[in-house]
Each structure stands twice: as structure tokens, then as C-alpha cells.
Amino acid sequence: MSEKHEVTADDSLRPVDAAISPAVNEKEAEANEKALSESPEGDEPTEEEVKTLRHVAENLPLAAWLVAGVELCERFTYYGMSGLFQNYINLPLDGSKGRGALGMGHQGATALSTFFQFWCYVTPIVGAVVADQYLGKYKTIVLFCIVYMVGLLVLVCTSIPTALENGAGLGGFIVAILIIGLGTGGIKSNVAPLIAEQYKRKKMAVTTTKKGERVVIDPALTIQRIYMIFYGCINIGSLSLLATPYMERDVGFWSAFLLCLCMFFVGTVVVIGGRKLYVVRPPQGSIITDAFKALWIMIVNRNMDAAKPTWQAANGGRRTNLPWDDHFVDELKRALVGCRVFCFYPIYWVVYGQFSSNFVTQAGQMEGHGVPNDLMQNFDPISILIFIPILEMGVYPLLRRMRINFRPITRISLGFVVASLAMMYAAIVQHLIYSAGPCYESPHCELSLVDGQYMGNNIHIAIQTPAYVFIGLSEIFASVSGLEYAYTKAPLSMKSFVQSMYLLTNAFGSAIGMALSPVAYDPAIMWMFTGLACASFATGFIFWGLYHHLNAQEDEMNALDLQNEGVQAVQAEHEQKQ
């Protein structure tokens, strides 16, 4: 990115202070908001140039990379820890390293692991309300980092062999996942919108490349790139599962959990150390309360425009003193479009949740050849890290050159279909396991016991790899596009809250997963995989049929933020003159 397009710490006028201190004076708050609404310089393209010139994305500012680094550390912790939960809960403590702890069996392990996922995606609502209404994103992230570390400390202490032998394991584990879930929820609802806020350009601009080509800098494409890189960092972090399964096996669960605690501490230091660089929008007071009040007015009047002050005035409404303007209602309607799109995501998250639960158990039913069964999960992030550069630097630019708009609704629909392929392949692998000796449809029977350890049926663990690859590819289309959609469709003052609504769909998916846990046994689980494949495939086509028309409205809906910031700038200039 050229110098004149960079966002620096000076450009932000230190809005972080506004988020931290509620006593900030009015003039400083106005200055912060004005700084946030500024867009880097550049000649605006004409309509003809928008249609004919190639659209490109900008590079990320330094502050965005810092936020991505924080998320990398948090995800390193989350996946490195939770990826071991299936074995930790499933297998009994037998005095040997890494062979288990709580001994609750396959179904108990799947149920508790799925509950943890559910809890982690309900709590973002708490983090969103705290951020949007009271503290701001930055201070909320710091607060919940501390909560997260407390939970990790409980997990480490209660997984020490002495604590497990004295019965502290189950109680400590439940307390730990409740605290950790609260911490991760508070962070997740804020870190995704915070990274996008580091990019300040709101208007398209014409520039010339080094090769002399005139192109249009498109903020929408940059936001898409930001979330691709953000998701890449998430998956670099999740490669912690390359290390923690071996630590689990060779040293003990406590050592893996301790590594996660240390890495999370590093991420917290980065958050606090870079506080002066971040561009942060201050909280907007009772914004979420106002949103629910506006929604109630819409419901009561059965009219989406009924919450507008102008509608109330024109129709003799009793609500003449509303604390918002018409534009706020337009933004809220746009947010509702996004939330309506999210309704189908629980089906996707049920499929996604299999890779850290039932896929781990499936891997344990095959010959490992020295590979821990929970190590196979790494093929998911590895595939994502391979496909993201291919798509971002090859496929997407090629589609833009061919004037093919690969809009979010299309990408999400494709994500559902690819996820169905993962489930279809998992069902095939399960069939192959049941077709192989020595235990056939009863893996881990006495015939597979060697030196006190169950070896699984005679089929190589590597056969499972394509299932993880399909899941990874589906995430790039469905999950990344969901993050992008949640940010671009949310009102400026409710970014964290709408992000939490998107994350809440993951909780619903986990709830469905918990409901399915009674059928997570041999041989019924093969038919569960088959059913999920059919459900995901059908959902992809239904989703496309219902929402593909929103692709044509994408630019119009995204322009609402620009209109609002223009209004705010005019108001600030008018007040300054007075």
C-alpha cells in the first residue's frame, strides 16, 4: 500500500482513549468520530470507470496485522486445548501418559466437547453487549483475556496427575470450560469487527499500478481480503495441534494445557502493548437497547419503517420523541437481512463440529502407525492455509478479470455443498472401517488389543485426510464469507452485536450436535454422517434459492455506512461553525 493510503497511529487520533475513559469530553469524542469517518485520499471513479476498470484490494495496515496476531494466539490456545478434550474425557486414567483422564466414554466425550463448543458461541452475546454499550471493543477484549487466563489456570492445575488421581479432574474440567467459554466468547465477538475497523477507506478510488494499469481500489474487496488473512491467522494458530497431541502422549495432558496458557499470555501482552496503535470506535451508550425498542415498534405496527421518526410523524404515531433517526432504522433493517441469512448456518456448524469430535474417534478406530488420532485434525488448517493463497492470489483475481462477481451469497452456498462432500467421504471411511478386521463393526474389541492399547481395525489412518480437506475448503467459502457478511451488514455502532448473532448460529449447531450424540455409536454413526451429508447438500441449494437475489443488492447495502459517515461529517462541520 502506498504511503498516502496507509492508516497510521496519528490518523486514528488515539480513539482508544475514548473507549477506555467514559469521562472523555464531547469535543474529543467528536474529533475521534470524525477521524474514524475519514477515508484516505484518492480520486473517486466515475460510473464508467467503476464498470470498466479492474477492481483491486489494498494491503492491510499494521494495526490489522496486530489484531490478527492476537487472534492467532487465542486460536492456538483454543484448538491446542480443545482438540485434546475428546481423549481427555473419553479414555480412563490408567497411570500412563496421555491415555485419558476422566473415563466418560465416547458418547460422554462427544456430549461434553459439543457443550463446550455450544457455550463458547453463546457467550459472544455477553461480550458484544459489554463492548457496544459500555466499554468499547478494546477494553472488552482485555477484560475477557484475563477471564480466559483464569479458566486456563484452573484447567492446568486440575489436569496434573496428582489432581486427577484425587478426583479433581471432572469438577475442575467443568469449571474450567465454563470460565474459558466466557472468555473466548467475549474475545470472539469483538476481535473480528476490530480488525476490519483498522482499515479506514470507505470510498472507491482510482489509482495506477506499477505496470501503468488504471484500477479501482475497492474497500469491499479489501474487507474480503482482511477476513481471508484473519482466517489464515486463525488456522496458523490452530496448528498447535501439531504439538499438543505429542505432549499429551509423551508428557501428559497438563503439559499441553500449560503450553496453551503460555501462548495465550503472549497474545494478551500483544493486546496491551499495542493499545496506542489500534483504531477503535467508542461505545454508543444504549445502542442495543434502542435496537430492541425499534424492533418492538416494527413488530407491533407490522411495518419495517414504523420505527422511523418520520413515519411516526406522518402516521400520527404516539412515539414522537424517539432517540434515533431514520438512518438508524435503515441500518437496523440491513442488519436483519444479515441475521436472516445466518439462520441456515446451524446446519453447517453441525458438520463443521464433527472434525473435532467424531472424526477424532473415527481416527482412533484405524491403524495409527505411530500417529496420535487427534493429530489428524491438523489437515483442516493445513488445507485452509494452502487454499487461501490460491484463491486470494489466483482464483478470485481471475474471476474479477473475467468480470465474474463471486458474491458472498454464492460463496456461502458453495460452502454448504463442499461441507456435504466431507460428510459423504466420512461415511465412506466409516463403511471401510466396518468392512475391515479384526473387529469389523465393533472397533476396539479385544482382538485389537496390543500391549494394553487398542490398535483399531486394519485400515490406514491417512485415508481420513480428504474429509478434513473438504471441511477446510468449505470453511473458506462459508465461514470466512459469514464473518465478512456479519461485519458489512452491521450498523457502525453494532458491529460486535451482529457478529455475536453470527457466532450464535454456531451454538445452535452445537445444540443440534448434542441432540445427535445418542446416535454417535457404532455402527449407527455411519448413517449419521450420511444424513448430515444430505442435509448440508440440500441446505446449500435452498439457501441459494432464497437469498441469491441479495447478491445484486450487495453494493447498495454496503453503501449505508458511507451515507451515515457523510451525515456525521456534515453535522460535525455544522456544529463547528456554530
Automatic annotation (TrEMBL):
Its main location: membrane. It comes from the Eukaryota. The chain crosses the membrane at residues 141-164, 170-195, 226-247, 253-274, 342-361, 381-399, 411-433, 467-488, 500-519, 525-547. Pfam families: PTR2. It is a multi-pass membrane protein. InterPro entries: MFS_trans_sf, POT_fam. Residues 1-14, 25-36 have a biased composition (Basic and acidic residues). GO terms for molecular function: dipeptide transmembrane transporter activity. It is found in: Membrane. Keywords: Membrane, Transmembrane, Transmembrane helix, Transport. Residues 1-49 are annotated as: Disordered. One of its GO terms (cellular component) is plasma membrane. CDD domains: MFS_PTR2. Belongs to the major facilitator superfamily. Proton-dependent oligopeptide transporter (POT/PTR) (TC 2.A.17) family. This is PTR2-domain-containing protein. It comes from Aspergillus campestris (strain IBT 28561).
